[in-house]
């Protein structure tokens, strides 16, 4: 059979090193709303101008390794039905629930395969129904040959329906949620030759000590710098429908798969959640400003969380340095705005003489956001997020994926002609 069982295939695909460019291109004309929780509908394949079939296959295998690390949360919505049906009910619901969870995993894998490919510079191209059905009916070897001239065409046959354009920063992008419907398996995935190579095992580090537990937000009277600490302040705003959405910040370790607390035993994560309750009855707006005492180092916005779902910006995250003895303002994030890029204007309540920071003799510095951190992927969805000011052109970077037991090499390169400059939880 030419069709590849994606979930099973993830267990046997090799994590072979592969060169991949992370690029930002102009949004496709007439492109649909970007949804990180589902793959594009229709008969689609992946295309990158100038690529050959071997590069196409290597990119797919590398993304299979990343997508294989992701997991969709269990859907326990049927638990009540099981309780009402006794032992037999529990057995029946268990079978149904297993099928539902398996379906969610397949949908999640398909979505993450597409997310990974587009972040790495590949376009999603949709064929019309007639041509798509013709290719879909082919056996794997014939389909593989049929894609030879398509995967690297500068002007691909079909409609370009998705490209990478730092989509996660835009307010209209669906960033998180339950995995959406899987319409059809990508023709690129169906064409991929089978491989019996197993991916390298992920590194298992030690259990985090109690001293590495995430810090809680400081109360106003607690805002003060202690030796060996930095203060980071974050403001989060939104509407009632975004209540509960959480931004997760992590500290960079000595290598992508090594937690910083393995060296110093100190916290490597803090989180800021948008309140679910309004400050006043009938008010639909939500806002919170929180300050955390954290170890000095590079802190990055690694993920966004809602309920059981986590979208991890492991393919490219943005961060800033927090130095010993200073107070850093990471910015104001508006979850209901046109963009999630932080407003770095220092707020009056941070500058006022009566503010907790001022009383403690502190002066906040606006964070200098930079981009390019990669981490071992985990959570429900993977993607990249560039939070640098929009006016700044983003440099192309060459990324060499390696097995998770090694660090990822990131080397800046000059942008190629006629390209637009750009682009684990620890």
Write the layout of secondary structure elements.
Blueprint: H1 6-9, E1 20-22, E2 43-47, H2 53-68, H3 79-84, H4 86-119, E3 123-127, H5 129-136, H6 140-146, E4 159-162, H7 187-191, E5 230-239, E6 246-251, H8 261-264, E7 269-273, E8 285-294, E9 297-306, E10 309-322, E11 327-334, H9 348-351, H10 356-359, E12 364-366, E13 370-373, E14 381-384, E15 397-400, E16 409-412
Parallel strand pairs: 5-11, 10-14, 11-12
Antiparallel strand pairs: 1-15, 2-3, 3-4, 5-8, 6-7, 6-9, 9-10, 10-13, 15-16
Helix pairs in contact: 2-4
Task: Describe the 3D structure.
Strands 6, 7, 9, 10, 13 and 14 form a six-stranded mixed sheet that branches. This protein has helices spanning 6-9, 53-68, 79-84, 86-119, 129-136, 140-146, 187-191, 261-264, 348-351, 356-359; strands spanning 20-22, 43-47, 123-127, 159-162, 230-239, 246-251, 269-273, 285-294, 297-306, 309-322, 327-334, 364-366, 370-373, 381-384, 397-400, 409-412. The chain is α+β, with helices and mostly antiparallel strands. A hairpin with an 8-residue loop joins strand 15 (397-400) and strand 16. Helix 2 packs across helix 4 (86-119). It starts with 5 loop residues before the first helix and ends in a 14-residue tail after the last strand.
């Amino acid at each position: 059979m030419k069709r590849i069982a994606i979930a099973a295939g993830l267990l046997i695909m090799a994590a072979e090193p592969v060169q991949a460019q992370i690029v930002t291109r102009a949004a496709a004309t007439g492109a649909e709303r970007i949804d990180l929780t589902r793959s594009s509908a229709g008969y689609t394949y992946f295309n990158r101008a100038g690529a050959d079939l071997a590069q196409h296959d290597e990119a797919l295998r590398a993304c299979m390794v990343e997508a294989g690390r992701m997991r969709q949360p269990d859907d326990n919505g049927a638990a009540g039905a099981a309780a009402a049906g006794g032992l037999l009910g529990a057995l029946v619901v268990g079978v149904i629930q297993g099928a539902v969870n398996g379906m969610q995993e397949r949908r999640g894998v398909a979505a993450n395969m597409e997310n990974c490919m587009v972040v790495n510079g590949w376009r999603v191209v949709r064929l019309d129904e007639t041509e798509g059905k013709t290719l879909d009916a082919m056996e794997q070897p014939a389909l593989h040959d049929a894609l030879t001239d398509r995967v690297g065409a500068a002007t691909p046959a079909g409609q370009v329906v998705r490209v990478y354009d730092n989509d996660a920063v835009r307010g209209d992008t669906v960033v998180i949620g339950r995995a959406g419907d899987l319409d059809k398996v990508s023709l690129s995935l169906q064409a991929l030759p089978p491989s019996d190579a197993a991916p390298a095992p992920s590194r298992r580090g030690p259990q985090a000590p109690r001293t590495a537990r995430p810090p809680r937000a400081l109360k106003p009277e607690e805002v003060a710098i202690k030796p060996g600490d930095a203060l980071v302040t974050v403001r989060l705003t939104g509407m009632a429908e975004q209540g509960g959405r959480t931004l997760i910040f992590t500290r960079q370790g000595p290598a992508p798969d090594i937690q910083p607390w393995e060296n110093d035993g100190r916290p490597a994560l803090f989180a800021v959640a948008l309140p679910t309750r309004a400050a006043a009855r009938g008010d639909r707006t939500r806002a919170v400003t929180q300050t955390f005492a954290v170890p000095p180092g590079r802190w990055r916005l690694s993920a966004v969380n809602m309920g059981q779902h986590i979208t991890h910006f492991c393919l490219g995250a943005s961060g800033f340095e927090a130095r010993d003895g200073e107070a850093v303002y990471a910015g104001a994030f508006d979850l209901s705005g046109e963009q999630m890029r932080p407003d770095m204007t220092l707020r009056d309540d941070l500058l006022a003489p009566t503010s907790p920071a001022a009383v403690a003799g502190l002066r906040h510095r606006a964070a200098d956001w930079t981009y390019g951190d990669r981490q071992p992927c985990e959570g429900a969805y993977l993607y990249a997020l560039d939070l640098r000011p929009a006016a700044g052109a983003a440099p192309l970077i060459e990324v060499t994926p390696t097995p998770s037991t090694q660090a990822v090499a990131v080397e800046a390169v000059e942008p190629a002609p006629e390209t637009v400059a750009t682009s684990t939880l620890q």
